Amino acid sequence: MDIIRRKTAILFEGTCRCGALIADAPFDQVDALTTYGYHLGMAFQIADDLLDYTADSTTLGKKAGADLREGKLTLPLIRALTAASTTDREIMLKVINDPDFNTNDLYRLIGVMEQYGTLASSKQTAQMHVQKATAALDVFPTGDLKTLLTDIAQYALVRKL
After folding, report:
1. pLDDT tens digits for 98-114?
2. Quick one: 2-158 is in which CATH superfamily?
3. CA-to-CA distance for 31 and 80, rounded, in angstroms?
4. Would you say 127 and 13 are in contact if contact means Cβ atoms under 8 Å apart?
């Protein structure tokens, strides 16, 4: 979670905060947009990590499992490694440690993650961050801006998950 925070959430948080400050928004709105950006970034990155296992190569624009091939251990994989039996962990580590793993190996790994519910739990974590992002917008009146920001947060989840 700390890597997600440092990799993406802080970027989104800072961008939203700077936009609010440049617009000379009141402090409560600056604070709200800062919180919104943080949670949007968390949701976006978790959803992006899930896409590496759930989207096809055409949708992704890169080969499925690309993060894994680059040695990146993402939230659903870390959760699966933590929950897995010794046998399942060995199966997972074999794939993780082989940068030339094949499609069948990737599907086997995805099957283990599904067995332990880590894809679903990671999606739930992303959904929780979207809820927190949109809740932060409560300081804004109902209108086009609030609707747009809410739609952007929701889009972080529906990018072909």
Report:
1. 888 888 999 999 999 99
2. Farnesyl Diphosphate Synthase (1.10.600.10)
3. 35
4. no
